[in-house]
Write a structure and sequence with these properties.
Layout: H1 3-7, H2 9-18, E1 57-63, E2 73-75, E3 78-82, E4 87-92, E5 98-103, E6 114-116, E7 119-123, E8 128-133, E9 139-144, E10 160-163, E11 168-172, E12 179-184, E13 194-196, E14 199-203, E15 208-213, E16 219-224, E17 234-236, E18 239-243, E19 249-253, E20 258-263, E21 277-278, E22 282-286, E23 291-296, E24 302-307, E25 317-319, E26 322-326, E27 331-336, E28 342-347, E29 357-359, E30 362-366, E31 371-376
Antiparallel strand pairs: 1-31, 2-3, 3-4, 4-5, 6-7, 7-8, 8-9, 10-11, 11-12, 13-14, 14-15, 15-16, 17-18, 18-19, 19-20, 21-22, 22-23, 23-24, 25-26, 26-27, 27-28, 29-30, 30-31
Length: about 375
């Protein structure tokens, strides 16, 4: 997205809000060799299973013609990422050379690709969902919703799930693009749906966390969040974790269907736009208060904060004891998960609102000046 549009993203979202069961035959990628979707897994936990070198070194740069706010997917030796130039880019992970470019119906904003069984799924700001052949870059099918799509597809279950600003959550047949079901909410569906144990969870501009049966779309429950959300819920261990524009991070108990705890910084009251990473004992999330926050998973109490020089809209990635996160100050940070101390940084030179992705020993992240960076050994 152009810089002016990026600065206005919060205004646009606020205005809009104001008005796994695996598929039969589907094969899971080898552990650590793929980051197939936004946040890395269907539950959106943001945990990488690959081993990254320390320190990271820049391997290559790839230049799109406009801003990259889409977070990359990595599968089968390729990186897939959308950009505001209206293209879905496929780049060789080893060399940084373009494999193909697919022209979408409109700019690709925050919608991030999801890769499954040789097909890449992504949405664009003209409201079109695209299914693209991963090998050739040719369209398999498209579907036009009633408004823009910033939600990232979740394609790792039996269907493909994605939200639209037309206020619907859609579930598509991955082969044909036919609508298996759709659910009407009470506001634009900005966030990416999370999938766990046959249930789809989505937070949205209607100030609610909603749960649906993944196969039928039948509503399971609704929990009030007391504020609208730009972040996607991460689901793990019977809880959904999500930040809101009410300046809070919430843990929702999915069995009790109630908020288990709330976190708000004692003095800095700013929205949480980034999605959280969930480890065994920590919740790590960036805020528009320029901080990265680590919370005790069981209680929501602060474990540490780390200060950057601008808002943090990039969603953190955790790889072992290491946290990687971008900031709108144009820096990619590596932090120690236990202490929150900075271990390493790379100055990209333009805001990093996209989230990092990591697989096969490499980490990639795009910037708002249209550069995709790949780090590795």
């Amino acid at each position: 997205m152009l810089a002016a549009l990026a600065r206005g993203a919060a205004v646009a979202l606020a205005a809009a809000c104001a008005i796994t069961r695996a598929a039969p035959g589907a094969q899971a990628p080898e552990r650590g060799q793929a980051w197939p979707m936004f946040r890395g897994d269907p539950a959106l936990t943001g945990i990488a299973e690959t081993t990254l070198p320390s320190p990271l070194a820049l391997r290559w740069r790839y230049e799109a013609k406009d801003s990259i706010e889409s977070s990359a997917a990595i599968a089968d030796g390729a990186v897939y990422v959308g950009s505001m130039d209206g293209y879905l880019h496929a780049i060789d992970l080893g060399t940084g050379k373009a494999r193909w470019r697919y022209q979408a119906a409109g700019p690709i904003g925050e919608s991030s690709p999801c890769v499954r069984d040789g097909v890449v799924y992504v949405g664009d700001l003209d409201g079109v969902v695209h299914a693209v052949d991963a090998a050739s870059g040719k369209a398999r099918w498209t579907f036009r919703s009633g408004s823009e799509i910033k939600s990232s597809p979740n394609c790792r279950g039996g269907l493909v799930y994605v939200g639209s600003y037309d206020q619907h959550l859609y579930a598509f047949d991955p082969s044909t693009g036919g609508v298996a079901w759709k659910a009407l909410t009470e506001g634009p569906v900005h966030a990416t749906p999370a999938l766990e144990a046959g249930v789809v969870y989505v937070a949205g501009c209607d100030e609610r966390l909603r749960a649906f049966d993944a196969t039928t779309g039948a509503p399971r429950f609704v929990v009030s969040l007391d504020a609208y959300t730009g972040a996607s819920a991460a689901v793990s261990g019977g809880r959904a974790y999500v930040g809101t524009f009410g300046n809070e991070v919430l843990a929702v108990d999915t069995a009790r269907r109630a908020v288990a705890w709330r976190y708000e910084h004692p003095t800095r009251h700013f929205p949480f736009y980034a999605s959280a990473a969930v480890t065994a004992d920590r919740i790590v999330v960036g805020g528009r208060d320029k901080l990265v926050h680590a919370l005790v998973r069981s209680t929501g109490k602060a474990a540490w904060t780390f200060t950057t020089r601008a808002r943090v809209e990039s969603s953190p990635l955790v790889a072992g004891p290491r946290v990687f996160v971008g900031s709108n100050d144009g820096v990619l940070y590596e932090l120690d998960l236990v202490s929150g101390k900075k271990v390493w940084e790379y100055v990209a030179g333009a805001p990093l609102s996209a989230s990092p992705a990591a697989a096969a020993g490499a980490l990639v992240i795009g910037s708002q000046d249209g550069v995709l960076f790949c780090f590795g050994p």
